[in-house]
Amino acid sequence: MKAISQSIERSLQQPRTMDNRRKRKLTFFTIGLIFLLSGVEYAVILPTIWRYLQTLDAAPYFLGLALSAFSLSGLVSGPLFGLWSDRIGTTKKIILFANLFEIIGNFMYFMGFSKWLLLSSRLVAGLGTGAGSSIFGFLTRSTAPEDRATVFAAVMACRQAGLLIGPGFNIFLRLCDFHLGPFVVNKYTAPGLFMCLLWILLQLAVLFMYWDLPPLERGKAKENSTSLSREEGLLEEENDEEKPLMVSQELVGSYGSLVSYNPPRYPTPAASNATLNHVSPPPSPMPPESHEFFSPFNNFSISQEFLREEVVVLLAAQFITLFNQTALETMVTPLTQKYFSYGELENSVMYCLCGVEVIAGFLFVRWLSQRVAERVVLVIGLTICNISGVWCLIFLAKPLGGFPWQLTEFIIGVFLQVLGLPFVAVAQVSLFSKVTAERTQGFSQGVRRSVGGLATILGPLWAGGLTENMYIMMGVMMALLALLTIMLAFSYDRLVAPAAEERVDDSDNCG
Fold first, then answer.
1. Are 32 and 154 a contacting pair, CB within 8 Å?
2. Are the C-beta atoms of residues 424 and 324 closer than 8 Å to each other?
3. When you count CB atoms within 10 A of the terminal residue's CB, does the N or C end of the chain come out lower?
C-alpha cells in the first residue's frame, strides 16, 4: 500500500512540476520580450528625434534635454520600483503598472503638438524603465547563483538584439504619410505610435505569460533539508533562528568554497521535536518567512549595504563603463563625419555591425561564465577596455597616416571598445546580485541602474562638449579605467558570493 501511495503521489506531482517548468520558461521569455522592446524603442526613436524636434522649432539643446529626460526619470523610478517589489514580494503588477508609462509616453511622442510635449513624453516613458530593477531582483531570487551570470547575459543580449533590429523598423515607418483622426502619421510621429502599440501587446503578454515564481532557493532548501533529515535523522538546533533563503547555495558552496549547512526556515518534524525538548523562548505568532515577506527592510542600513568595498567597486564599474560607452557613442558620429565623410547610411551600417559584435560577445560571455568565476570575466573585460582606451588615446584622438590607415585605426579602436562591454556588464551585474542582500534585491538593483543612468546622462554631456579636444576627453576616460583597474586589483579577493552570505547572516543574527 505504501508503494502504491508513493506512486500515486509521484504521478500527481509530475504534472505540477511540468506546469511549473512551463510557467518558468514563459516568464523568462516574457522578460526577454521586455528587454527586447526597450532596445527597439531606443533604436527606433533615436535616429529621428532630432529632425522631429526641428519640425517643432526646437533649439539644438532640446535634443540633449529630450535624451537626458528619459535617463533622468529612469534614474529616479528604478529604486522606487525596486523598493516596491521588495516590500510586496511580487513583480507582475509592477511591470504592468510601469508599462503604462511607456504606453502613455510613446503616445504623447506620437501626438507631438509641441517641443514641450515631446520633452514630456520622453520623461514619462523613462519612468517605465524603472521596472528593470524589479525584474533583476526577481531574476536574482529565481535563479541559482551559479546560473545567474548566464541568465543575465541572455537578458542583456535581448536588449542588444532590440538595438540591432530596431533600425530595420524605420525602413517602413519612414514611408508612413496619412492622418489618424486629428493626428498626423509621418516618419517622425510613426515611431511613437509603433512603440505604443508594441507596449500594449506586451501588456497582454505579461498578463497571460508572466508568473511571480517563488524563489528558487526556497524550494531547493526544502528538498535538501528533507533528504538530509532522512539520512542523518537529526538537525542542529542552534541555528533555528531566522535565516536568509540561501541554503541550497550554502550546501554546494560558491566557487568551490566549503560552507557549513544551515537548517531551513521551516523545520522538519525531527527538528521540531528536538526544539521542543530544548529550552527556548516561545515562538513568534508570525512565521519568520512571513515577517520577512512584509518587512524585508528590517535591520537594513543603506551605508552598510552600499558603502562596502566590493559594492563600491561594482558600482564604479557600472558607472565608468557606461560613461565611457555613451561618451564613445556621442563622439563616433562627429569623428566619422570629420575624417571619413560618413553619412546616415554608413553610420547605420557601423552601428549594425557593432550590434552584431555585442550580441556575439554576450553569447560568448554566457558560455564562459559557466566555466569561470564572474570576477575572472570582469578582469578579462576590464583588460580589453584598458587596451581599447590606450589605442583610442593614441590613434583616435589624432588619427595617423592616410585614409586606409585612419580607417583601420578607427575600426580596431571601436572593435576593442565594443568587445569589452559584455564581459564587464554581465560580470558586474551578476556579482552585484551576490554581494548585496537577496531580500532587498529590487531596491539594490534600482540603485545600480540609477548609477548607470547617471553615467548615461553625464557621458554624452562630457563627450559632446569636447569633440574638439579629443586628448582631454579620452584622457579622462582612460584615467577612469585606470582607477577602476586599481580598485579591482585591491578588492579582487572580496568579489565572491560568500561575502554576501556572511554579511546577511550577521545582519539577521543582530536582529
1. yes
2. no
3. N
Tell which residue, 271, 172, 249, 279, has the closest CA to residue 502.
249
R_g over Cα of the chain: 25
Does the pTM surpass 0.70? The reply is no
CA 65 to chain centre: 24
**CA terminus-to-terminus distance, the chain:** 47
Residue whose cell numbers read 515577506: 293
Is residue 231 within 8 A of residue 270, CB to CB? The reply is no
C-alpha pair distances (Å), 306 with each of 137, 322, 492? 16, 19, 17
Shortest CA distance to 217 belongs to which of 242, 252, 269, 260? Answer: 252
**DSSP H or E run through 479:** helix 470-491
Contact status, residue 136 vs residue 446, Cβ threshold 8 Å: no
Question: Please, are residues 73 and 126 in contact by the beta-carbon 8 Å criterion?
Answer: yes
Backbone angles phi, psi at 180, to 5 degrees: -125, 90
- Cα–Cα distance between 231 and 113 in angstroms, integer? 72
Alpha-carbon distance of 455 to 449, in angstroms, equals 10
**What pLDDT does 18 receive?**
55
Spatial separation of the C-alpha atoms in residues 239 and 227, rounded to whole Å = 18
Q: Is 268 helix (H, G, I), strand (E, B) or coil?
A: coil
Sort strands 183-185 and 178-180 into parallel, antiparallel or unpaired: antiparallel
What pLDDT score does 124 carry? 92
CB neighbours of residue 179 within 10 Å: 9
pLDDT of residue 486: 92
Asked whether the beta carbons of 503 and 264 are under 8 A apart, the reply is no
3 state SS of 187: coil
Q: Given the C-alpha cell 560558491, which residue does it identify? A: 254
Q: What is the pLDDT of residue 100?
A: 93
pLDDT averaged per 10 residues, the chain (length 511)? 55 59 87 89 80 82 78 83 82 91 92 87 89 84 78 80 77 80 85 92 91 65 41 39 35 34 39 40 42 51 74 90 82 77 71 80 85 87 90 81 82 86 85 79 79 82 74 87 91 70 45 42
Instruction: Note the pLDDT of residue 399.
Output: 77
Question: How far is the C-alpha of 333 from the C-alpha of 344, rounded, in Å?
Answer: 9
Which three cell numbers, joined as nine digits, stand for 164?
540591432
C-alpha cell read off for 57:
522649432
How far, in Å, CA of 223 to CA of 226, rounded?
5
Report the pLDDT value the prediction gives residue 97, as an integer from 0 to 100.
Answer: 93
If DSSP states are collapsed to H, E and C, what string results for 296-307?
CCCCCCHHHHHC
Cα–Cα distance, 87 to 74 (Å, whole number): 20
User: Would you say how long the chain is, in residues?
Assistant: 511
Residue 200 confidence (pLDDT)? 93
Q: Mutual orientation of helices 498-510 and 403-435 as an angle, nearest 10°? A: 30
Q: Say if CB 178 and CB 185 are below 8 A apart.
A: yes
